[in-house]
Design goal:
Largest sheet: 6 strands, antiparallel
Helix content: 25-40%
Number of helices: 23
Strand content: 25-35%
Shape: elongated
Strand order of the largest sheet: 13-12-11-16-15-14
Oligomer: single chain
Distance between the termini: 99 Å
Structural class: alpha+beta
Mean pLDDT: 85
Length: 705
């Protein structure tokens, strides 16, 4: 241990030798002088040098009255000395003495008679400078009053961390009488506090002597056992003048108001951060389920331990009336999120499932009234009105769920569903501030969910229209096997522009068409339907591909602002030739049997609707086993890569072992298109077969383009 390291009282009792001296006598410089019966100085302590100014050599053997007392006081001193010697009574008081320097000083005396083993009598005088004594008395009095009247709590603990002194302020803070503190340890007085941490800090101060200032402590005392308080606590070691460690002092200031204000400020900052986070994370897509998932995720763990989003099924299907509602409601669970792995998440309704809840259920009450439902402290009966069934209620109880909050999802004055939350691990109950925060999150999310459901409705309508306008199962084609695929865009407003067609023609020929109306939505789908109908009509006239495109261009120019790209090909199985023309579309891919796939080198042409640009028909061989791929730009275009790079990727993807025709379309879609790409895709693959071959005169076969 260090030089000033404290020694516990019990350990000191077991040591041999004297204990370290106190410093008060040294501070007072108490002098001792012994006189014989004649009044001569026979003993002289070193401290007497300082009090009287004489050395022992100068004082010993001299009459004390003559040396130390002025003449006018000698008779009085002689009388007092005689009384002490004759009666044995002690005398105490202040008396003016003559200092060696000639000055007169008041000295506090304690005089008493001494008797030795031979029967001789002496007089002992204990003396201290009165100015020093008064200063010490004043300091002690001031210290006592300062401690007693201080508005902050003050305690002194000994080296064993037992209370030695407690002032009235600390008595009030702790709610325990000061007398009951003395001799006891902190944990005996304040069992609700983190005593181990406090005592560890006190021992550190005792050992090192380094104060600990403004340490925060939060807890409860007998003065207010039902509420948390916060205190600023400081510890510092106390030492006597000689360096002896007396103990450790502590000062305690109740800073509960400041602590609560800091907590509120922190909560406000976290709420603002949560709202900002929700603004960035909720409503990133026009998808109802994704938006609900984003809302649930943003609520944990900042607001709840478990969050769920349930939307009325009638709202999702646009069957909800605007009048008042009573009775049971059917909800569709759209999202569940938990702050940590817990059984409580399994007790929630499975995402995607429907659940019917009666009017007495809390979630039903929330959507019926359009008002939040707050159960700060959840009981067993409450859980039966929260959980889907009694087993789920037991699970919630077992996992420690203790507080519940549900807020309605309202957009454009229509209640869409409810956003409900639970707390289990978080010990704080939901309060009115949480209601406001949850309502803010729900309001933002409800608008996004409402927008998403409307867009999803438009998307469904556009996709339904689109699919209704596309051909069904490709018809039987002479000398061709055909596979097709249509994939709508992910976003509702981008559905509707792409189409394909397989049209049987006279003479066993087949027309293959892929087109893309530039635009989206229902209008684009309707335009696509008109162009497809027109294409079928012109194809039936047995026109050349460039003539068909010329007529389509004229029609498209009459369709307001719409333009379209298109590839039109006619395959004749008798000579295995394909006639093709392009109107601003991406080049088809020819995958000849046994050869590497390549892009057909066709005159690009202008999109339909531009007008004034001629179209050209190109002829190439499509022999048995050869494949022709027609596609729209949604298959290959991305926002990050040049189109040439993506076309090379398409050829590289096709340059491998052949897959069955039926699965090739989906395989190409999965390989090339990212799920988040925002465009339709139409694919048409035709493979020539040997069944349609008819011998032709020499010289009538054309070369590939």
């Amino acid at each position: 241990m260090g030089a000033h390291e404290p020694v516990p009282d019990e350990a000191r009792d077991r040591t041999e030798g004297p204990s370290p001296p106190g410093g008060l006598l040294d501070l007072l410089s108490v002098a001792a002088v012994v006189l014989d019966t004649r009044g001569r100085i026979v003993f002289w302590s070193p401290q007497a040098d300082e009090v009287f100014g004489y050395t022992a050599e100068e004082a010993l053997g001299k009459p004390a009255a003559h040396l130390l007392v002025r003449g006018e006081h000698e008779d009085l001193v002689t009388k007092l000395f005689a009384e002490v010697m004759s009666t044995g009574a002690s005398w105490a008081g202040a008396f003016p003495i003559r200092h060696k320097d000639g000055s007169t000083r008041l000295v506090e005396f304690r005089n008493m008679r001494l008797l030795d083993d031979l029967g001789d009598v002496y007089a002992l005088g204990i003396a201290a400078d009165q100015r020093m004594l008064h200063r010490v008395e004043t300091d002690l009095a001031l210290s006592q009053r300062l401690v007693a009247q201080a508005p902050i709590g003050i305690a002194l603990l000994d080296t064993n961390l037992r209370y030695m002194l407690v002032n009235p302020a600390l008595e009030r803070i702790n709610g325990v009488p000061a007398a009951d503190h003395i001799g006891r340890r902190i944990h005996e007085i304040l069992p609700f506090l983190d005593v181990d941490t406090l005592e560890s800090a006190l021992r550190q101060v005792l050992v090192t002597g380094t104060p600990l200032i403004d340490q925060y402590s939060v807890g409860r005392t007998p003065a207010d056992p039902d509420h948390d308080h916060a205190w600023s606590v400081s510890f510092y070691r106390l030492e006597g003048p000689s360096g002896r460690v007396i103990g450790v002092a502590s000062s305690v200031v109740d800073v509960s108001e400041r602590h609560r204000a800091a907590i509120e400020a922190d909560r406000a900052r976290r709420r603002l951060a949560l709202i900002a986070d929700a603004s960035a994370r909720v409503g990133t897509t026009l998808d109802v389920e994704q938006t609900a998932h984003e809302l649930a995720q943003v609520a944990v763990p900042g607001l709840a331990d478990l969050a769920a989003v349930d939307v009325l099924d009638a709202v999702l299907s646009f069957r909800r009336s605007s009048g008042p509602h009573e009775g049971p409601e059917v909800f569709r669970a759209l999202a569940v999120a938990s702050a940590y792995p817990t059984e409580a998440a399994a007790a929630a309704d499975t995402v995607g499932d429907l659940a019917s809840y009666g009017a007495d259920r809390l979630i039903t009450r929330c959507v019926h009234t359009g008002q939040p439902v707050l159960v700060a402290s959840v009981g067993a009966e409450d859980l039966l009105r929260i959980a889907r069934d009694s087993d789920a209620a037991s699970t919630l109880s077992r996992t420690g769920v203790h507080s519940y909050l549900a807020v309605p999802l309202i957009a454009h004055n229509e209640v869409l569903g409810a956003f409900d939350m639970l707390r289990a691990r978080n010990p704080l109950p939901f309060d009115e501030d949480d209601v406001i925060l949850a309502g803010e999150l729900a309001a933002r999310a409800a608008v996004a969910i409402d927008n998403a459901r409307w867009h999803q409705s438009v998307r469904n309508a556009a996709e339904t229209l689109q699919r209704s306008l596309l051909p069904g199962q490709p018809p039987e084609a002479h000398g061709l096997e055909v596979a097709s695929l249509y994939q709508p865009a992910q976003a509702s407003h981008e559905v509707g522009g792409d189409w394909y067609d397989v049209i049987p023609l006279a003479g066993d020929k087949t027309a293959l068409v892929v087109g893309d109306v530039m635009g989206n939505g229902i209008d684009a789908a309707a335009t696509m339907g008109r162009l497809r109908t027109a294409t079928c009509a012109f194809a039936d006239l047995d026109l050349a591909p460039d003539q068909v495109l010329r007529h389509l261009d004229k029609i498209t120019r009459g369709l307001e602002h719409y333009i379209a790209t298109c590839v039109y090909a006619v395959y004749d199985p008798h000579d295995h030739r394909c006639h093709i023309a392009n109107a601003g579309h991406l080049p088809p891919v020819l995958a000849a049997a046994g050869r590497r796939p390549r892009l057909l080198d066709l005159p690009t042409g202008a999109p339909l609707g531009v007008g004034g640009v001629a179209f050209h028909t190109t002829v190439f061989d499509l022999n048995p086993g050869d494949r022709l791929l027609l596609y729209t730009d949604g298959l290959v275009e991305t926002r990050q890569h040049p189109i040439d790079e993506r076309l090379d990727t398409l050829l590289h993807t096709l340059d491998g072992p052949r897959r069955p025709l039926d699965g090739t379309c989906q395989w190409l879609l999965d390989s090339l298109r990212h799920p988040d790409d925002h465009d339709d895709v139409a694919l048409l693959i035709a493979q020539a077969t040997a069944g349609g071959h008819v011998d032709q005169p020499e010289g009538t076969r054309g070369s590939g383009a």
